[in-house]
Each structure stands twice: as structure tokens, then as C-alpha cells.
Amino acid sequence: MKVAQVMAGNEEGGLEKHFIELCNGLVAHGVDVVAIAHSRYADRFVPEVTIESVDLARGRRNPFALYKLYRALLRHNVDIVHAQASKAMAMVDTLLPWLTLPAVATQHNLKSNNKYQHFAGVIAVSDVAAAALKHRYVTIVHNGIAPSLQPSQATLNRLTNELELPEGPIFLSVARLVPAKGLDILLDAWQQANVAGTLLVVGDGPEEESLIARTNHLNLSQRVRFLGHRDDISALICLADALLISSRYEGGPYTLAEALLLGCPVLSTRVGMVPDYLPAQFMCEPEAPSALAHLLTTHLGEPKGLREKQGGIFVAARQSLTLEAMVQANMSVYRRVLDT
């Protein structure tokens, strides 16, 4: 089986992580993969992945980008095309009438109203996303990850010293600093919540300056720290008493999977695949600072108790939120489409 994986973005986040790990995971199972994406990701694929560097970030209707994508798909003589997220889906959908290829699309969020008219199958990354899709063949495949190794206590001690973390509970937010992630909402909620402890915000993005200003305006500078981009997310999750997700909308998020696989409790807005794993008591509605503040106040007073309450969720995550489970599910979709 030869599969062309198509991604049109050139940013850094959950979509890009998904694309790269899926490509690498598929070749480990004997699938011949052609990764069609921006050149900035080329060094992140295993050698068995065929890389076709094409800049598709200029616009989904850009004739030059569409022509390059069309030529790439013809040149590699693939059996099936898999478009990742709205922009790639729109571009592949435009070309499919001129290609004698079956195609699959993965919808990563709810922003698109794409009708997928030329796709043989559509993958949704959550139950909520699946319910919004109008297609004859929809499959739910949650975003899985390769489980991270548990860092040693010595590593955690070094990190604690490096960051000069204070005594008391540590809570963590890991996200791109963009409006969709709702960090402004989290800061407002943190100011309202009756919670002792320090909030670490990990990530960078265009909202960083305004979020730091908001932190200062809310007199939170002693309770909130911005750490910027970090490569040691797993260790930070293991240090944390809970991961906090405040997104306005989401596909995954990947941080949910990583935290649950590492046994870190999660409190979140009701977005993406979060409702597929967290009971209602650990969620609140998006864009509601007061509701989020109430959620935080309710559960973060006794972090140890929260970890015990979510023990069963950790077990469920280890069964279905792995990279292996995600790869196998995607392969099942390909086989079904090719056999139809």
C-alpha cells in the first residue's frame, strides 16, 4: 500500500506532530508513505518516508500550489491520498476530479464547513467532530502519541532547581499562545479561583506579549510564570499536579493524551476529544472564565485526591491514546476505502 500524506501548513503544533508521527508510524508497519509538506519538516521523518517538499501554505486556491500538489501526486503513483486538516482537504478536493485516486480526509477541528464531496472516507479526531460531519463514511480516530519515558527523579529534581520552582502545587498549561487556546480565559479564571500554587505557561506565539501584560494587569506575576517554548514537556507534566486546558476550540489536544499517559490529572474546557475521556465533573464550557474558575477551585485544592479520582481515566488512555492504536486505525480506514 502506497499512501500520500498531505499537509498544507507551515506552523508548529498538534497538527504537525500528528502528521509526522503518523507518517513515521505507518512506514514501521510496512506502508509506503510519501509525505507532501513544507520543507521545514523534512528532517523529522524516518529515512523510510519519501519526502516531497512542497510549499502549500500560500493559499488553498493558489494555482501554482495546486499545480505542484497535482504533479507530486501523479509523480509518486500512490494508491490513496490522505489530506490532513481543512486547508489540505480543500486543495486535494479541488484536484480529485482530475485524479483517479481514492482519498481520505482527517478533520482536526470544527471550523471547516467542507462538504468532502470527493472523499471516499472522513476521519474525525473526536466524537464531537464526527457528529458535525455529513458524510456516508465517518470514522473516529483519536490522536494518539508514542508514550514518553517517565523521567527519573534526578531529572525532575534538576528541573525543579533550574526553574527555581517555589514550594507548593504546580499547575501546567502547554499551548501555542494564540487566541484559540484561550490563555486569556485561563488567566482571568486563575485570578478569580481560590487556588494555592503556581501556574506554568509553556509555549510561544503571537499572543505572548499581550498575555504577559494581562498577567501583570491582573496582579498575577507572582502566581504565573511564562516559560516559552520547551523541549522537556514530559518532565514538566510529571512535575505538575495537574494540566489545565482552556481552549476555545480544539482537535485533540495532544497535551490531553500526553498528560493522561503520564498519569497527570487534567481539567479542561469541553473541546475536541476531551469529552471522550474526561467525565463532566472535570470539564466546563469554553469561553467562560467564571465556570473555569469554579472548576479549578473545586478540584485543585487537593491535587492528590484529583489524581486518585482520575486513575481509571489513565487506564483507559493507555489502551486507546497510543501512537500504535492511531496508526492501526488509520490503516483500517485505508483498507476499507481501497476494498470498496
Please tell me about this protein's structure:
By secondary structure, the chain is an alpha/beta fold. It folds into two domains: 2-145 and 322-339, Rossmann fold (3-Layer(aba) Sandwich); 153-320, Glycogen Phosphorylase B (Rossmann fold). It contains 14 helices and 13 strands. It has helices spanning 14-28, 63-76, 85-95, 127-132, 153-163, 183-192, 208-217, 233-239, 254-261, 274-277, 289-299, 303-309, 311-320, 323-339; strands at residues 2-7, 32-37, 50-53, 80-84, 103-107, 121-124, 138-140, 170-174, 198-202, 224-228, 242-245, 266-269, 283-284. Helix 4 links the parallel strand 6 (121-124) and strand 7.
What layout of secondary structure does this protein have?
Layout: E1 2-7, H1 14-28, E2 32-37, E3 50-53, H2 63-76, E4 80-84, H3 85-95, E5 103-107, E6 121-124, H4 127-132, E7 138-140, H5 153-163, E8 170-174, H6 183-192, E9 198-202, H7 208-217, E10 224-228, H8 233-239, E11 242-245, H9 254-261, E12 266-269, H10 274-277, E13 283-284, H11 289-299, H12 303-309, H13 311-320, H14 323-339
Parallel strand pairs: 1-2, 1-4, 2-3, 4-5, 5-6, 6-7, 8-9, 8-11, 9-10, 11-12, 12-13
Helix pairs in contact: 1-14, 5-8, 6-11
